[in-house]
Write a structure and sequence with these properties.
Helices cover 2% and strands 44% of the residues. The strands form 4 sheets. It has an 8-stranded mixed sheet with strand order 14-15-16-17-1-20-19-18, with no helix packed on it. InterPro entries: QCT, Quino_amine_DH_bsu, WD40/YVTN_repeat-like_dom_sf.
């Protein structure tokens, strides 16, 4: 997906005071005082971080030409953002068959990244163009373009704010009307080192689940991080190593990327860049 990584660093400010809501972080969309503040998460001991495994419940077809950057389940369908300059798209996909039912081609000079759905709108960010496309969910009509600073990688939402990753260890909570930063959340590995390359995101039962681009570089190939959205604390890892060996063997960039949660059915779907399959999985404690 990326051929180089912009190295960034952040100077952490005083910790924001958060509430204990399991479903939504404590944010104030109207308070400039909260913007750009960070919450430093103390590194827990390595043996305190649980590791989960998985069981494949169903396997579905996935377009092997889809360089998956964002994945959402909404009202019985999958919505997918695909990347690569000249190949980026927004799609509505039939889950059972993998058939693309609706598709919008992004301009050829744009590298599309993560996407999410909030209040009947699709938000699709871009890698290095600093623009978020906002579409009508029903017809993919472009409603507006919002600007932001820095790179765009993954995107999800907590029902109130957009939640974006930018390839660093900082996750940003954004006002969906303006894309102004409401809160910045640093995330650390269990070793205490920053968890860089946070990529595609999904909000699952009050947690942020995150793909880590080339997570094998930190000794966790095809692992998903589970993150507390209030503190940034690492809650656990989901080890999906080996879930689709034929896919990851074809190209080093065919990394795990794409998490979708069906809240109504309590189902998790995962796929990767140019993977031939999409999987419904059940998360299990590691035996």
């Amino acid at each position: 997906m990326r051929f180089f990584l912009l190295i960034t660093f952040a100077v952490f400010a005083a910790s924001c005071k958060n509430n204990t809501s399991a479903n939504r972080p404590n944010v104030n969309n109207n308070s400039a005082a909260n913007a750009n503040k960070t919450v430093a998460a103390p590194a827990p001991a390595a043996d305190k971080i649980p590791v989960y495994t998985y069981e494949i419940v169903n396997t579905f077809k996935h377009d092997p030409k889809a360089f998956t950057q964002g994945l959402v389940y909404e009202n019985g369908f999958l919505y997918e953002s695909t990347g690569q300059t000249g190949e980026s798209t927004l799609r509505k996909v039939e889950l059972e068959s993998g058939k693309v039912l609706q598709k919008h081609d992004v301009d050829d000079d744009i590298f599309a990244e993560g996407m999410t759905i909030l209040n009947g709108k699709i938000y699709q960010i871009t890698w290095q163009d600093g623009v978020c496309f906002v579409y009508d969910l029903k017809n993919f009509k472009l409603l507006e373009e919002l600007k932001y600073n820095g790179e765009g990688w993954g995107l999800t939402n907590d029902g109130t704010n957009l939640i974006m990753s930018d390839g660093t260890h900082i996750i940003k909570f954004l006002d969906p009307q303006t894309l102004k930063t409401v809160r910045a959340l640093p995330v650390f590995q269990e070793t205490g080192k920053p968890l860089f390359k946070i990529n595609e995101l999904e909000y699952v039962k009050g947690e942020i689940w995150a793909n880590i681009w080339h997570s094998e570089e930190i000794g966790k190939p095809n692992h998903i991080a589970r993150i507390d959205p209030n503190s940034g604390k690492l809650l656990g890892w989901i080890n999906l190593q080996g879930i689709s060996p034929d896919d990851v063997a074809r190209d080093e960039e065919n990394t795990l990327n794409g998490i979708a949660y069906d809240a109504g059915g309590d189902r998790i779907f995962v796929t990767g860049k140019n993977w031939k399959n999409l999987f419904e999985i059940k998360i299990k404690p590691k035996s």
